[in-house]
Design a protein that fits this description.
There is one protein chain. By secondary structure, the protein is mostly helical. The protein has one domain (3-396). Helix content is 74%, strand content 0%. It contains 16 helices and no strands. The chain has helices at residues 20-38, 48-72, 77-105, 115-122, 126-129, 147-169, 172-195, 200-205, 211-226, 232-258, 267-293, 298-303, 306-314, 316-330, 337-374, 381-396. 42% of the residues are buried.
């Protein structure tokens, strides 16, 4: 029996609570992105951290949606979007404001002249603004990394609505299959773009050319939604994860130090920018599945350590926002690379912590309190009936 043929269950039983190993994985991914910008020659494939982020984001967000859907029979889209905005926007606006203000006060600094990037960053369209430049690497744009946030937010404008529509007409098993097919369709579209000679900036930054990575994470979440703990499907998934997860994680780790993403048209360019993002996302999905299904393995225990899981949970987002502005600011001030990297890392951690404590947490708590008060409601009768049906199906299996 394949994973997608498993009986449907009333909740994501394989993931009853937060998985700290995934928080640790966020820390590792953001560190690799930082090193990619700070020491590209040492970590040429560090941008793989972004591919991991995309896959992990699709996985986590889809699980959250499915939990609410199975509990209530729907999703309050307004509250979903409001909570996401309250979670992400304040820290982003703070970064934009500090950079612009400091650039005006210190016109000779690397933060000067960044006013033109504030609207694309704050409006979640930086990826579209990058269509005329190469992929958002160090080009003087301190807000350049916000292209990844733009890709995610553009995806999440569509995905929750599409998921709810599919769930209205199809069972979760069918929705999981369709989501996988959609991921393959976007891979095919990228193949066509490569054949047509699309520039790297288009392939790198497009919301469509990254959609397959997010959808692979979404598909994994839907598969996990189908599986009942202790079932034969659970045992099969666990066996597959233990077999495929460690090699996938090792390949990703090796690629961080060995992979040079091609920038010049040619055979390797065409092959990589056709299949590369999907392959990296599939490897990330295998690693994520392994960490979730086998939380007692050595790697999962390391990633779950508070020194890794805590920063991944609380600081990784703000660290990602601040790391390039800080590094660019220090470039002319600290000539030594080996002194600049640890100094930039330390200063970025300090700013990320300040963002978390002074900006993100107060705003999120304030917003969640009001949004949760507005969302007090009993589960509608259709949802309860759906839950009974799913429970019966699980028992029958």
């Amino acid at each position: 029996m394949s994973a997608l043929e498993c009986p449907e269950t009333p909740s994501t039983g394989l993931i009853p609570g937060r998985k700290h190993a995934l928080d640790g994985l966020r820390t590792v991914a953001v560190v690799f992105v930082f090193l990619f910008h700070a020491a590209t020659d040492l970590v040429p494939g560090g941008s793989i951290g972004v591919d991991v982020f995309f896959t992990l984001s699709g996985f986590v967000i889809t699980l959250l949606i499915m939990k609410e859907y199975l509990a209530t029979g729907g999703l309050r889209l307004g509250i979903f979007y409001a909570k996401r905005l309250a979670r992400l926007w304040p820290a982003l606006l703070a970064v934009c404001g500090v950079i612009v203000a400091a650039g005006l006060v210190f016109p000779a600094s690397k933060w000067a002249g960044q006013e033109g990037f504030v609207l694309p960053a704050a409006g979640y369209v930086m990826n579209l603004a990058h269509f005329g430049t190469f992929g958002g690497s160090i080009t003087g744009e301190t807000l350049g990394p916000t292209w990844t946030l733009a890709v995610e937010e553009q995806f999440y404008l569509v995905w929750p609505v599409l998921l709810l529509v599919m769930l209205r007409f199809w069972r979760v098993r069918t929705v999981a299959w369709v989501t996988g097919v959609l991921a393959a369709a976007f891979l095919l579209e990228r193949f066509v773009l490569v054949l047509l000679g699309a520039p790297l900036s288009r392939l790198y930054n497009g919301p469509d050319t990254r959609a397959d990575e997010l959808l692979i994470g979404c598909t994994l979440a839907l598969v996990f939604t189908l599986v009942r703990r202790g079932s034969r499907c659970h045992a099969s998934l666990l066996s597959a994860a233990r077999w495929a997860g460690p090699p996938a994680a090792l390949v990703l780790l090796a690629a961080v130090f060995l992979l040079h993403e091609p920038g010049t048209p040619g055979l390797w360019f065409s092959a990589f920018w056709t299949a590369g993002p999907a392959v990296l996302a599939l490897l990330a999905a295998l690693a994520i599945g392994w960490l979730v299904l086998s939380p007692a393995n050595f790697t999962a225990r390391i990633l779950s350590h508070p020194w890794l899981a805590g920063p991944g949970r609380d600081l990784s987002y703000a660290f990602y926002l601040w790391h390039l502005p800080v590094y660019l600011l220090l470039m002319p001030l600290v000539p030594s690379l080996w002194l600049r990297i640890p100094l930039a890392a330390a200063l970025t951690v300090v700013l990320a912590y300040a963002s978390f404590r002074l900006v993100e947490t107060p705003v999120r708590n304030w917003a969640n309190k009001r949004l949760d008060a507005a969302d007090v409601r009993p589960a509608p009768e259709p949802a309860r009936e759906r839950e009974r049906e799913l429970v019966s199906a699980g028992r029958a299996a």
